[in-house]
Every structure is written in C-alpha cells, then in structure tokens.
Amino acid sequence: MAKAVLRLDDIKKLIGEDCLAVLDAEGEIPSKIILPSKEEIYEVSRLFRLISSEPKLEILSLLSQSSLPVCAISKLLGKDQSLISHHLSELKMAGLVREKRAGRFKVYSIEKENIDGICRRMQKLIGTARLAPRETG
After folding, report:
1. In 10 A of CB 87, how many CB atoms?
2. Rounded to whole angstroms, how far apart are CA atoms 111 and 97?
3. What is the CATH number of the domain that holds 80?
4. Is residue 58 located within the same domain as residue 99?
5. 3-state SS, residue 68
6. Distance between CA atoms of 62 and 65, rounded to whole angstroms?
7. Which of 2, 21, 59, 115 has the most crowded Cβ, counting Cβ within 10 A?
8. Does any domain span residue 31?
9. At what angle do helices 54-63 and 81-93 cross, to 10 degrees?
10. Is there a contact between 121 and 44 (Cβ–Cβ < 8 Å)?
11. Rounded to 5, what percent of the chain is helix, strand, coil?
C-alpha cells in the first residue's frame, strides 16, 4: 500500500468541525498530511523492536567504536558469551552488524550504512527535519 496524501479539503472532511476549530484556534491547520504506508510503519517498528533490548543497544554502542570479537564484547559488558552470540546473530540477520573470521574468532563490526539508513527512515517517518522547538512564553 502506498502513502496517501491528504490535501486541505480532504483533511477538513475527515477530521470534522470540532477538531478543525481546535486546529484553527492553534493556527495549525495543515495544508496537507502524508499518511505513511503500512509497510513503512511495519518495517521501522520491526527494526526498533529488534534493537529495543538493552544488551543489543550496548553491543551496538561498543561496535560503533571498534570492531570486536565476541569474547571481548562479553567481558566488556559482563554478560555470558552465549547470550552475546545470540544477540549478535539477531543483529547480523537484521543487517546491523557483520562478522569476519580472524583465526578461530569471529570479529563483529557495525554496518554503519544500514544504521544510518534506519535513522534516515525514522526521521522521514516522523518528519523531524520539519519539527522546530516551540517557543514558550
């Protein structure tokens, strides 16, 4: 399903007079609203669910600084190596980290382009580029 673009007339019809009056009083009647596609919402929410655990965020934080083997990540975070391997496997399947062999060790590094892509998609989805801080008076 593609994104839907609602123009001012459509917005006025959909939200009704009561809501329109509130927006008008706030001086914030939008000239158009873009509704995100279900696929876009699903994909971004899936990625955020994946990285929402503290251990995964800790791992990503470490790997954003340096490529590391599982044993180093485990010792730095004070967590069991099998747990770290499990989290790394999920992050790898999602394309957020990559691994390479170094002898008998697997060394992990962050997939910067994919992480940047997630950030761009989220920014596009919620439109943070358009948001400005409100003045308080």
Report:
1. 23
2. 5
3. 1.10.10.10
4. yes
5. strand
6. 5
7. 59
8. yes
9. 80
10. yes
11. 55, 15, 25
pLDDT at 1: 47
Residue 130 lies in a domain: no
pTM: 0.70
pLDDT in tens, the chain (137 residues): 456 788 888 888 888 888 888 887 877 888 888 888 888 888 888 888 888 889 999 999 999 999 999 999 999 999 999 999 999 999 999 999 999 999 999 999 999 998 888 888 888 888 765 544 544 44
Helix orientation angle between 112-126 and 38-50, rounded to the nearest 10 degrees: 130
Angle at 98 between CA 104 and CA 75, to 5 degrees: 60
Domain that holds residue 28: 1-35
Same domain assignment for residues 27 and 55: no
CB 125: neighbour CB atoms within 10 A?
Answer: 14
If 0-12 CB within 10 Å is exposed, 13-18 middle and 19+ buried, where does residue 88 land? buried
- 58 within some domain: yes
Instruction: Assess contact for 125 and 36: CB atoms under 8 A.
Output: yes
Q: Is 92 exposed, middle or buried (0-12, 13-18, 19+ CB in 10 A)?
A: middle
